Amino acid sequence: MPDSVLPLVEPDLVGIWKRNVWWFGLRWPFSLVLFSWVTVASTLAPEFHLDRYLFTMLAGFLGLVIGAHYIDIAGSSDKYLPYFPRMNRSAIRAVGVLAVLAGVAVGVYMSLIYSIWFLVFVVVGGFFALFYPIEKPKWLHSYAGFGMAWGFMPVLASYYIQALRIDLVGLGLAVFLGITVVEMHHMAVLTNEKEYAPETNKNARLLLRIHKAAAYAIGLILLISRLV
Hints:
The chain is mostly helical. It has one domain. It contains 9 helices and no strands. It has helices spanning 21-24, 28-44, 50-75, 77-80, 89-113, 119-131, 143-163, 168-189, 198-227. α2 (28-44) runs antiparallel to α3, α3 (50-75) packs parallel to α6 (119-131) and α6 packs antiparallel against α7 (143-163).
């Protein structure tokens, strides 16, 4: 089936994002939302340390943006094969696993220089990055699991590494953004043209654009407020 008439199964399988499976695999529109929520948590902590923020972003980029996404694509090759017929499943999976391990290594380094208790977040985050995409255990690949892996844990970890403590503000923020990413995920699901009506697809894409714009804006504004 020609690429131009393939029904969309993901909202970001359009434009420049579908030119190459390695480029698409980074899932930039959604990864930038993750970075925005990490930025919100980091900047709303009682203290803000730029070096810790940059390390947090690096660990997240390696472990979740590259690692988890590539493992997911390798495990869902039938879903993406019509769009990327020449994709090398083994190579994508290998890069994904190596990226997760590199992200864990950055997290271990942060634990050694900032707080050994941060290792708890590193271990749990590494577990989510490796096993959420392959749906093992099964309960992990659910809306609750997605909220934990892509919202609650990254946000709480980002808050903790700045403040070196967990308080009710950080916990409340993690809960709120954990629920928020589930909402975003559900909107993305509703854009699947194979399973939902065109009107549903259209409304879901509009809500996703609004959601992403809000996330990008608040993350950028709060980061600027800490840097100036």
